[in-house]
Amino acid sequence: MRLRPSSLKTSFARYVTPSPQSTATMPTCGPCKASFLHFRPFPVTIFTAFLYLALFIPLLIIHYVPPAPPPNASLKESIGVDLEDSWRTLAAITKKYHPYNSRANDHVKSFLVDKINQIIEKNGNNKTEVIEDTYVNVLYTGRASVKIYFESLNVIVKVQGSGGFEGVIGDVLVNAHYDSVSTAPGATDDGVAVVTVLGLIDYFTQPQNTPRRDMYFLLNNGEEDYLNGAMAFTEHPLAKNCRIFLNLEGAGAGGRATLFRSTDAEVTKFFKRAKYPFGSSLSGDAFKKGFIRSQTDYIIFDGELGMRGLDLAFWHPRARYHTQWDSMAFTSINSLWHMFETSLSSLVGMAQDGSYTFIEGSGRKHTGVWFDMFGRGFAIFDIADTFIWSMCLLTITPFFIFGLFYLLAKADKLYLLASSPKSNGPLPPKLELAGCKGFWRPFVAILFSTSAVVSTALLIAKANPMIMYSSQEAVWVCLISSWIITSWFSLKVANWWRPSATARTWSIGWISFIAWILLVFNAVAEDRLDVGGMYFTIFYYMATALALVFSLFDLFFLPPTSHIYDSISHVDPFEDDDRRSLIAPSVDQTNTLSPDEEEPETPNEHTSLLRDSSNLGRGRHIGRRPNSHGSLSIGAASSLPTIENNEDDEPSCSSSTLCASRQYPGEQYWSRYALRYSWILQAIVLIPVPVIITAQIAFIVGTSIAQTGADGNNPVTGYILYSILTVLVLLPLQPFLHRWTRHVPIFLFFVFAGTFLYLLLAFPFSWNNPLKVYFAQTVDLKTGENKVHLVGVSKYIKNIVEENIPSAWAPGADLQCQDDPLRLGLQRCSWPGKMPNVVPGSEWKKWASVNATYLDEKAGLNRAKIEVRAQNTRACRVNFDQATAKWVKSVDIFDPTGKGKTVKHKNEKKDAAGFVQQIRLWSRDWERGWDVVVQYEKPKGAEGGPVGFVECLWSDANNGAIKALEEVKSFLPQWAVVSKLEDGLVIGEIPFAIEEPKKI
After folding, report:
1. Of 234, 450, 630, 658, which one's alpha carbon is 20 to 30 angstroms from that of 877?
2. Has residue 363 been placed in a domain?
């Protein structure tokens, strides 16, 4: 049947009413240039890109640059402390390496005692007491089957407070260690902390700054050797008075001092007083769960004494840590000022606190969740509060969002789930709204971009795993570029194929859902593991949920879906110019075709009721097929083409009102009624908070793990963390990426290509970020055989030795490289080296001696004495071989001069191993030695007593006596640096066996 145009005109008359403006010719316009703040490519690109830069730049500056101190004259006037004098003091104590087992250590101790006395005399404080602890000896269990004997050389300064309390409330302890490792001057580990303590003593001994609580300033000696100095303090009578502590440490070589960890939220609140706070509770959780294996004196005060306090430390760069470059040349007075200012601010709060919160047995102790805000503010919460907060967000927020969906559905404005509205007439039955279009594209884009980032990171880890050691910034740039390029391309293709006005809302919804999942993990960690390091998920979800709420509020400003068809301004389709669209009007609503575009043939029964799409307009969607149900679409998913301008064609419009009512090219017709500026509010809500919180964590984590590969850690773990944090930082950008112009992604493509090639091919070390290798030398004091050992990353250590160390080239050097038993993941290369001269004027046979004698049998246990004597050292070790070590049940150590006796640690617990395999011996006096009495129980049928060997240690590298070390330092390539492998640089070995008397 042939439907005549006249009948069509009659049947449409009551449903299609000409608009009053349809008779006038109106200008055609695309997206208006004048509407700068509309959701258009140029303003979206500029606004979001600059928003990220405005957040990243300050975070990077805060991360890397410590604050500058006020003028020194101003400091002397305001707080009475001379910062420049502290800097000069740092120079004095870092002239030489000064480990516990060195003569330089004694000189540093004497210098510090004299300096303290000068400060007290200057301030005229006769109530301050200086105590040199030379009488506490402690014997305690280290790790399983290891006993440690240590004699204290600590310095304690007691500053008497004004008091006035009813009962005992506890005193304040400030701790730093004045020993360094044997291969470093110790400027930041722990020299800056030591001079900070001197400055604090200076402040609190001034009459106008008298503290309310008594304060103890502990300069302990022996931290680098198993935290021995702090452990010795636990046996000092004054230790029982202390309830609050501040530990000052250095695990890097400069920068800002960060709050490593704290015992609880209540004591962490004192840190809030600092003008430049810096840190995140994530680092404390990493210590708590064993992800960071190194330790500080914090664990002694917390674990052994049950005190409550803070651990403040330098933390990067790790490449200089424990090396000769931990010197004043690589730190600054700014770093000194930052540690001093944060310490002083916290201690003023502690010292003047009059509460009974910190008395022993007080129940007011809660795990803290804390972080700084741009290095100027500090947030602190109880983990119980954050858990309640998390649960409320997890439950209430989704109900609120579902409530908004319900209200939108009741108001007939739920465009997100609407496909087409109902109409009152028989034709057309439906009009497509395509609200669900765009639902899956954010998820697919996140999947693709995340896969691209992870694949890029793993490829770098496979080809050049150590490159993050020196180029972590390049890794960040490469991964960020990869994510943006992939995500932008995925969204742009989807938007070109099926444009949708709901793309931004669906993207925000997906990000909010991902944040909700992360918040679930955070709630579980808070409840089950008592860790709050995922605190960022709380703020992340709050921001994304709020942005989603604002996106849903946008829909309330739209007309009901049932009114969309009636709101379209129609024209009579059978006026003289019948070349208009029959049913689907153009988005211009007034466009006409030129006369030369007439139909080439007369319509017949085979002619479609709808005009040939080949002659309709200049839009991107020319030639689209009708949808499956035969409905007529408006916009992006239209089954008919619309007459619209290309999105790149933005002419100036004569009518700003008309331009303001335009929808974006190709998107649904109803989007012209949406708010034009709401995207700015959504961006401001969605981007800053998640980026600030997450980027801060990313920088801290990234810097912390970048150089741990030299310690034997698997670099792949670092790259995975980099990838995860990259995605989290950039996710808030995704709802706006489909509107970005191509210019930034093209630029980032070249950035990605350049950084990716660099990361694959560049050498991973430099003089500024040198590879750390570990030195030790063993000497057999029976045969004179010596071996030099250098331990490092297996890919490089053998070449370093073969190509750079002359003694390894010598004929018969017999270089051997194998996996190191002490540092897992690294390789040890050993070769005969130059004999050291650690005991001047004495041949190597007389450096040390050991005499093992059987004593008697008591209560079924045999007793034997091992006499250890050594020259020019105050450190030795007694080792039992693996078989006979299980016989040894207990140990006592005596001073051979008869002046002292072993004091067993008061909190000593029975060794879980049930035997003793190694005894570490430390003496405050030189060349005195030890008498070790052991009790052992032999199995039936065993003959003889325990056997083993004694190792005596020499750690003084200041006088050039360790020639092999000097050779390594001289001939290492400029991109490598040496550190110590063990307690001693030179280890002399002597075997022993306990001979039992023959039974008659």
Report:
1. 234
2. no
Q: Does 352 share its domain with 429?
A: no
Higher pLDDT, 980 or 38: 980
Q: Which tokens hold the place of 132?
A: 């040199």
Q: How many CB atoms lie within 10 A of CB 399?
A: 9
223 annotated active-site: yes
Q: Are residues 340 and 413 in the same domain?
A: no
Average pLDDT over residues 954-959: 95
Radius of gyration of the chain (CA): 38
Q: Which residues are CB-contacts of 809 (< 8 A; sequence separation ≥ 6)?
A: 802
* Cβ–Cβ under 8 Å, residues 669 and 640: no
Q: How far apart are CA 328 and CA 336, in angstroms?
A: 11
Cα dihedral 360, 366, 371, 377 sign: negative
Contact 938, 915 (CB under 8 A): no
What's the distance, Cα to Cα, between the start and end of the chain in Å? 130
Other beta carbons less than 10 A from residue 294's beta carbon: 8
Could you tell me if 152 and 924 are in contact, meaning their C-beta atoms sit under 8 angstroms apart? yes
Query: What is the overall mean pLDDT for the chain?
Result: 86
Token pair of 704 as six digits: 């912390």
For the segment 371-416, what is each residue's pLDDT rounded down to a tens digit?
Answer: 999 999 999 999 999 999 999 999 999 999 999 999 999 998 999 9
449's tokens: 């971009």
> Has residue 210 been placed in a domain?
yes
d(CA 744, CA 747): 5
Compute the half-sphere exposure of residue 603: CA atoms within 13 Å on the CB side of its CA: 15
DSSP letter for 205, please.
T
The first and second tokens of residue 823, run together, are 């540092």
pLDDT digits (tens, 9 = 90+) for 538-549: 999 999 999 999
Q: Are 916 and 885 in contact (CB under 8 A)?
A: yes
What integer is the mean pLDDT of 601-606? Answer: 52
Same structural domain for residues 350 and 424?
A: no
Q: Are 921 and 893 in contact (CB under 8 A)?
A: yes
Structure tokens at 378: 């500090």
Residue 434 sits in the same domain as residue 493: yes
CA distances (Å), 772 to each of 255, 447, 765, 791, in order?
20, 38, 10, 9
Strand order in the sheet with 930-936: 848-858, 861-870, 930-936, 888-894
Residues 6+ apart with CB under 8 A from 761: 464
Do 530 and 445 reside in the same domain of the chain? yes
CATH code at 248? 3.40.630.10
User: Does pLDDT of 423 surpass 60?
Assistant: no
Q: Which domain holds residue 304?
A: 72-136+154-357
**By the 8 A CB rule, do 817 and 798 touch?**
yes
**Do 615 and 651 fall into the same domain?**
yes
Find, among 114, 112, 97, 350, the residue nearest to 247 by Cα: 350
Contact (Cβ atoms closer than 8 angstroms) between residue 977 and residue 815: no
C-alpha angle 435/440/444, rounded to 5°?
150
- Do 397 and 346 fall within a single domain? no
Q: How confident is the model at residue 624 (pLDDT cuts 50, 70, 90)?
A: very low
> Pick the catalytic residue: 223, 224, 647, 667?
223
Q: What is the mean pLDDT of residues 678-699?
A: 96
Cα(684)–Cα(732) distance, integer angstroms: 10
Query: In sequence order, which residues have a C-beta less than 8 Å from that of residue 450 and are 6 or more positions away?
Result: 483, 723, 727
Domain count, the chain: 2
Residue 654 has pLDDT above 60, yes or no: no
DSSP 179: -
Phi, psi dihedral angles at 313 (to 5 degrees): -155, 155
Query: In the predicted model, is pLDDT for residue 718 greater than 70?
Result: yes
State the angle between helix axes of 536-555 and 383-410 in degrees (0 to 180), rounded to the nearest 10: 10
DSSP 189: I
546 in a structural domain: yes
Residue 425 lies in a domain: yes
Could you say which of 730, 747, 769 is where a domain stops? Answer: 769
